[in-house]
Structure formats: C-alpha cells, structure tokens
Amino acid sequence: MVQATNTLSANRNPATGVLLALIVLTASAFACSSEPPTPSPTQSPTEQPTNTPVPTTTPTQPPIPTESPSPPSATATNTPQPVTRSLPTPTQPAPTATETPLSPTPTIETTESTQPPEPTATPIPATATPTVPVPSPTPTVVPRVTATPETVGPPHVEPLSVTGTKGGEIKIAVPEAPPHQDIHKSVSPILAAWGPGIAYSRIFRYRWIAPDAPHQGLNTLGERYDPQSSTSAHEIICDLCESWELDDSVLTINLRPNVAWQATNPGLGRDLDASDVVFSINRLQDPTLPNSPLVNTVSQASAIDDETVEIHITLHDAEIFDKLADARTAIVAPEAVNLNGDLTQGPTIGTGPWIQTLFERSALRFEANRNYFIPELPLLDGITVVTIPDAQTRITSLRTGQIDLAQPDLPDLTSAIERFDELRWTRSHDPAAGIEVAFNTRRGELGSHNFRTAIFYSWDPLSLIDTLHDGQSFLSAGLPLNNPDWLVPRDEIGSYFNDRSKVLEVLEGVNLPRGIVLEIRVGQFGDEYIETALSLASAIKSLGVIVTVEAISTRSFAEDVWLDHDYDIYVGAPPPQSSATSTLFSVFHSVGTRNVTGYATENLDDLIQRQTVELNPANRRRLLLDIQREILLGAHLFRPAANVSHWLWWSHLNGIAPSTYRADSFWLTRLWLGDRVRGG
Prior knowledge:
- By secondary structure, the protein is α+β, with helices and mostly antiparallel strands.
- The protein folds into two domains: 367 residues, D-Maltodextrin-Binding Protein, domain 2 (3-Layer(aba) Sandwich); 209 residues, Dipeptide-binding Protein, Domain 3 (Dipeptide-binding Protein, domain 3, Roll), CATH 3.10.105.
- The protein is built from 17 helices and 21 strands.
- Strands 13, 14, 15, 16, 17, 18 and 19 form a seven-stranded mixed sheet that branches. A four-stranded mixed sheet has the order 3-12-11-10, with no helix packed on it. It has a four-stranded antiparallel sheet with strand order 6-7-9-8, with helices on one face.
- A hairpin with a 3-residue loop joins strand 10 and strand 11.
- Helix 15 packs antiparallel against helix 16 and helix 16 packs antiparallel against helix 17.
- The chain is globular and about 75 Å long.
- The N terminus is likely disordered.
C-alpha cells in the first residue's frame, strides 16, 4: 500500500492497462468539448453577452498588513503532492486565448516550378474518419507495450504561507459570460475560472505561486517569448483531502475535517462528507456530460465512512491527480442538484473560498467565504466579474480605473504601459492552442518523409513569429503541457526548421516528379492564419513546387479538413484539448480516430502507451519530451505560433499569478490591495 509520502505501487498488467487506455482514453478524446463543429482559435464559450457600462468601485481600506500562518494542510505531515514537476522559479501557468481574429480574404498565388527529382512515397494508410467534436469510436487495434514504468512517490509539498492584507474588492473584465451555472455541464473556462466554478472545491488543487516581480514598462516586451524562461506553479496538493494513498488501482482519500457547505439558499450549512464526493464523481461519469472524460478511468467511487472515499481506477492513469485537480471536477451538493434536476439555473453552493451573490449576463459577484476551511483565505472581501465582449472597451475600462485586471490584446497592452507607469503585466502560455499546420501524409509526394522534412528546412516560422506576433509566440509540437520544463527547448525545436544546407541532403536520392502541385487550405480564423499559409507557400515554392492557397470558412474547415481529410496541407486552429494523453491517443496514435495526417510509427505508439501509465513524473517527462521530438521528426503536424496571453493590472493589486490551466483560479484567493492608483 502506498501513502502520500511513500513509493507508489507499479504492479499492473501491461497488456490490460494499454487495452483499457486505448478503449477509455481514445474514445473520450476531445469529448469534453461542447463547442459546435466550427473550430475556433480560442477555447472560450461561443455566447457573446451584451456589454454594460462598468461602475466605479471604491474599495474598502484594508487593515494593517499581518503575517498569517500556513493553511491547515501546511502543517499535516501527510499532505500530498501526487505530481512533482519542479522548476527553478515558478510564475506563470498556461493561458486560454481570448482574442477573436478577423476573417480577411486571402491572396491566392500560383507559381510554375522547376523540376526536382522524383520521390519514393510510402504514405501510411488512412485511419478512421474523425468526428468534430463528438466522442470517437473505440479502436479495435491494441499496440503492444515494450516497457513497464517505474513509479516513485513524490516528496511532501506544503501550501504557501499567506502574506498580505485583508479587505477591499476588485473588478475583473472577461470577454464572455458563462453559458449557465452547472460546473459539470460545460467545458467553459469562463464558467470554471471566473464564474460559478470559484465557489467550489475539489479533491486536489494546484499550488500557484505569485511572480517575484511582475513586468513594468516596455523593456522586456520586446524580447522574443521563450516558455522555458517562464515559471509555472504546478505542484498538486490536497484541497478537500487531508491525505491520500494509492494501492495498485485503488485511490483512498481521507477528507479534511470541519469542511462546511456554504449556508446560502437552499440553506445547507452542514458539513461535507464522503457521500458528497461520491455523488459528484458518479454524476460526472454520465457520458452525456462534456466533462465526463475527467473521470474516464474511474470505475467506481464509494464512501467507506463519512471521512473516507475509495476511488477505483481501471489502470495506472498518469493524469488521475491532474483530472481530480481540474476545476471542472468540482464537488457539488446533492441537495443543490436535486432542487431543479441540475445546476444550470443554480443554486451555486459550494465549499470553496467564494460565495456567489449575483449571476447575470453582464456581471457576476462573489463575496469572501469567511467560513472557508482555510481561515486565512481569501484576502479580498469580494470580486466582481464584468462581461465586456469588446477588447478595446475592456482596456479602456482598465485605463480609466473602472477595472483592476484584464487580458488585453498586444497593441492595447503596449499602448497602456507606454502611458501609465503604474500598470503591471505578465505573460502565460498554451502550447496546445494557436496556429496549427498539418501535412496529409496520405497524399502523393507528401507521403515522403524526406520531402516533408525538406519543407520544414525550407521554412522559417521564427521570422513569422517576429513579424506577425511581435515575438510573442513560440514553436510547439502541440501538446497541452503546462510545465515549460516538459516542452522541447526553443533552440532545439528551432533546429527542425530553416536550414537550407540540409534541404539537398534530405532530398538526395529522392526522385521527385516534375510539376508537383500542392494546395494549402487555410481556415478563415484571422489575418495571421492567412499570412502563415502564404509564408509556408513561399517556402514550398523554393523547392520547385507549384502551390496554391485556398481560404475556406471555419465551418468548411471542420467539415472538409477534419471530417473528410480533403486537404494536402492545412493551416488552421486546433480543437480544444482536454489532456496530453487524450490528445496523443486520438491525434498521434496509429489507431487514433482524429489522426488527420495519417502519420504514425511503432516507436511513437510505444511512447504514447508508456507515458499513459507512467506515474513517476521524471520518467513521464522524459517520455513526453521523446514524444514531442518524434512528432517533430515526423514533419507532419505542429504549431508554428503557439498562444501567449498577456495580463494587465494596476500596481495596487498584489499577488497576481494568473493562469487558466485546467480552469484553475485558486490564485484569486491570495490577491490583496495596497495603495490604490487610478488611471486617467
């Protein structure tokens, strides 16, 4: 048996584990998306509420600063950290994009070519046609496992001590309103991170750490963004649990004592018990719920007594702690659900740090839960979340002092920090979001690995990042990995591109036929997508290939490209991705039902299967780095411009550690107000 601070058991049946992994994880890949078939470069809900004027708030004067002791879990010797991914200096977790780009008409170019030599193409057979974005059918092929992972228990990690002053309220601007109030029925990061979700607790949570020094002024904004230079708070610790132990396929959770439901209508106020946790997990297992993939490896949850929950998992799931720490795996009260049959119209009653007092399309309001089980938190008295769809209006509201925190577009950020010395800013990244480029390896010469590699070596996406994104983007293999230390370093990933000296080397002995014609289909997601397609077309033409560029609607992109695989090369926005494992099985595995490029190798399949059950974070990191390198070596799918989000706030607001990774927003509890400075 394994306790929180000891070694995790590695006993398992490899063949059974992989079979279950393929059945459960691939079938549920992208099932957590409730978006319509039209893909989007953002991962926010599609509803666009009407903007209303933002009232001016005069905050309560905070008391004299005092040091507070660590939260209760900080002193417990069995407080766990199921997953450890240490970084030198933690700061910025992963973002969700909020920008909605324009849809211009592209320039379509055709150029005659010279004759390179003829290729020897060996395209991989097509996989099952994917659906967008509903669950995929269960694959029928089970690849073999070549290694058994070694699992080692993580060290003890405590929550941070609480530093700051209590009191005051702030306003935050978001682009869209939550679609409803049911945390289990929507993948919306707005609902989970800025809406009703912040009223709830879950079994585990992330330990966010505020940056030591937020950016000020323009001096660092001109630097090309490198996720390796960013810090990220990523440890997982107990939230509702007091301790845990993992024995083979049974995760035993011992709950904190004295956790009470918020005493609001319909007036709970009773203590949380194990049956509430079991009710919530069982509710999430409903396959019709978009967040059901978060418990897709849970076979059963049961209450042993009022303080103990047993969760039976079908295999060693490397992401089980991440899933149980996801904000959408919230623990809800049975009474609240049973009142109306679901929570879409409320009531929102949780055990979390914030009590929801207003839910409207134009604004949401939350008051501090002063009966929260960590008595030192939250520091603020209240938060108002205002819906302002227009990005320019959001930044104007912040500049005039009506808003304290917002996510600006880059030009608005630059303009604001040039004018106001009192503004502070930071960045966060999402390697899975942004612009995606894919090659259809089932089509003619694109089945030649050497030909695709030559295209990579002919193209310079880094220069495109500088010209189109002012350096505020980065290259990525496309996996949703929050920790920068788990991403291929910038210098290494850059070595896969823009090396003309290697073009002739990779094409040596490859007999390309005369007059190769390729078409790039680009979704009309915005100017930068069109420009990316044209830049790629120019690079391919340098190889003596005739290239055309066709701009198609976002709906046609979903139907023709994703569903029918009708493309040679595409440039577009990827669908939302729930986890690294589901992405790998559905997009990159040989039996993946969303493998739209047709590329797969035995080695890549093996790496994907091994990381699925690898509970040792250090070992899994090495596997995921090898997977990303294998993807890049395959020269078939990547992100030439992964998303970077910017955050802007007034200097009176302290403790900022913004993130939207797994919709977590616990860092809001540590915000506190200093001397207020207003814009003008």
